[in-house]
Amino acid sequence: MDLTFLPAWPPAVPAALAVAVLALLAAAAGEGASRLRLPRLFGYVAAGALFGAGGYALRVLQMEELPTATLQVALEFTAAVILFDVGQRVSFGWVRRNPALLATSIAESALSFVAVFSVMRLFGIDAWSCALIASITMATSPAVVLAVTREMRAQGQVTERTLLLTALNSIYAVMLSTLLLGLAREQAGAQFADLLLHPAYLIIGSLAVAAVGARLFLLVLSFIGRDRAGQILVMLAVVWMVYAAAVTLRLSPLLALLACGAFVRTFDTGRQLTATEFGPVSGIALVLFFALSAAMVDFENMFSAWLPAVALIVVRMTAKVATVTAFGPLTGITLRKGLLTGLGLLPMSAVALMLIRQVSEWNPDLAQQTTAVLLPSVVILQLGGALTLALALRWSGEARTSR
Amino acid sequence: MTDALLEFARSEWLSMGVELELQLIDRRTGDLTRGASDLIALVTKQPFPGDVKPEITESMLEVSTSVQQAFEPLRGELLAIRNALVTGADRLDLEVAGGGTHPFQRWYDRQIYDRPRFRHVAGLYGYLAKQFTVFGQHVHIGCENGTQALWLLHRLSAYIPQFIALAASSPYFQGVDTAYDCSRLNSVYAFPLSGRAPFLTDWPAFERFFAKLKALGVVESMKDFYWDIRPKPEYGTIEVRVFDTPLTVERAAVLAAYVQVICRMLLEHPAPPESEEIYVTYNYNRFQACRFGLEGQLIDGATGAVRAVHQDVLATLELVRPHARELGSLDAIDEVERWVRTEGNDARWQRQTFQRHHSMAELVLQSAERWRGTRAPAPEMPPPRRVGTL
Questions:
Q1: Which of B30, B92, B365 has the CB atom closest to A157's CB atom?
Q2: ipTM value of the model?
Q3: Where do the structural domains in chain A lie, given as residue ranges?
Q4: pTM for the full predicted model
Q5: CB contact burial A300-339 (16+ within 10 A = b; e otherwise)
Q6: pLDDT in tens, B46-81
Q7: Best label site of A355, B149, B272, B304, fewest CB within 10 Å?
Q8: What kind of fold does domain B16-372 have according to CATH?
Q9: CATH, domain range A85-283+304-395
């Protein structure tokens, strides 16, 4: 009997199916978390972790390999959409009208850097790793902040300031970690020209790609007009082009996408953005981002450096909350709302790990040491930070009232 | 408040004050946003010209002037209030805007401001309270006693269509062109105690009316009446409430001065005793003004004569001119004439702006620019059709 029309056994599973299964799990788990009155991202992360554990089991049983490459591409694309969206929250106009906000931003990032660096040194970690850890942990997670403020439909000063400060400290973190990368190369015996040239290429090149992307986006958008599907397509296309250009030119995709969002807002003098609504798209990107990043966490590394990680969390929190609280009245809000904004800045996410990945391409050793400390901090602060942010939004009265 | 309660405070004759309900706008999206308590806290750190209070939702703000006698100082105070608000709003990345409605806000997104009275109103009226996110200007005119106030209230009702049409700035509501110049009053009309005040002409009768409704549990205080004009005994004023909040404070000042000068004319020329007959065409005329603005057709209940609102305004302007000279508000009168002959009301500007950009968000943000005084360039539209006719 000829049975060749039947699939081979066991059937070959296409990679895309893994993403589909994960998406389904995440959507259901998100609703589950919501019914437990937790932010939905708890559900997305849980689904991702479950999926990751399943993949691990399959690997151990030598049955199936997770399509890691496909998952990685999907993860980076969702991160790209999120970074572009958060970049749009940078209002240079607001910073100009209220310069104390820029001072707040620089102060909280600087203090967070100094505090984390000093404490990491106490644990005997080498100075380069400390500096790298400190620069990356300056950043608040754009993904968590976007997800929680969207889900709670929050509006108001704490919300807007958290978003602005998040976008700004993410930009600093990318820039500083890029610079440190250059310096670390010099330590490894590279030429002086290298030390300046490489970071300069990374930063200027990424900003240039961002600017071109932003111009292109607005140009096509003005031609598209009010067609909703067209607008979304243009957004996705430009995000992908900026990402691809940054990767191809060996620039920083993270910086390019954040800056592209910010430039779009700045260049948009005709206010074309007000007529667009990308909410649903970044909503989908957020679900996949949390699920995928949790699925790909390598838990073997999880507990090797938990003590420095806990110390990191404590000093980072203290530095950020204290600074933003103290600067509150200078920026036109009360100490209380300053405190709540500070609590909103605690989340960290896999975006930090992606920064490390960027570093590891050039300096694998450095990446190895920093990941051991960063991984547990990120896992804790992704969920813990989401909770403090959700509480801050509720206490400030900026979250939508329950139905 | 006790039951005896409605003692009418004596005010200086023809003194005036203005209250404006304002919108707080998100600079990025043009939508209404929460921020009233933050903005109030910020602007009251320095002495605030006039007064600023929260309103029923966090995206709404109420400012009021002190008691003024004349147009110019009133305008000056309103400009100072505007500047203080704009300075504060800039630091919070908010925009402040006038307009009787927000063109596309969704009422179920609104957050009720946390004060006992507002919570009571929200509980009682349900979705109406949130849909009531509309923005009006109230003009107070001082009276010497309650009976004079009631007499003035009823005489002034003949001018309500003019007031509605001149101030109309709510053509868009919940994302659609309502076809009305003033859609805001339709929202107000949904409340049980709206429309015109009952025809009572002396203060003791009014007190008995109020006591009766209170005993029946229908009202608790004067605030439960949403009438077009209502007496405000504790201030010693009557309060005209049919104005949409204009897009600029300059317009708000002109409208107040126009009410003041009409009141002076009415008080200087006591007419024969009135009867409830004056209200025969009231609701019809009010509808015409809301729907068609200055083009609305008014029917005189006594004579049956029909004329357009803009003709009615121009006729009134001629009669009040001597009084405006006395009160020092000729500039305001000229301004009203300019609106009627060339510029039109704010609803017209709103429709023209929307037709130019096809974006309600853009309309809101340009309204906010107008409010700040950095005027958006006048839309290039066909010249106004109407030349004043008398």
A1: B92
A2: 0.84
A3: 13-73, 85-283+304-395
A4: 0.87
A5: eeeeebeebbebbbebbbebbbbbbbbbbeebbbbeebbb
A6: 888 989 998 878 889 999 999 999 999 999 999 999
A7: B272
A8: Creatine Kinase; Chain A, domain 2 (3.30.590)
A9: 1.20.1530.20
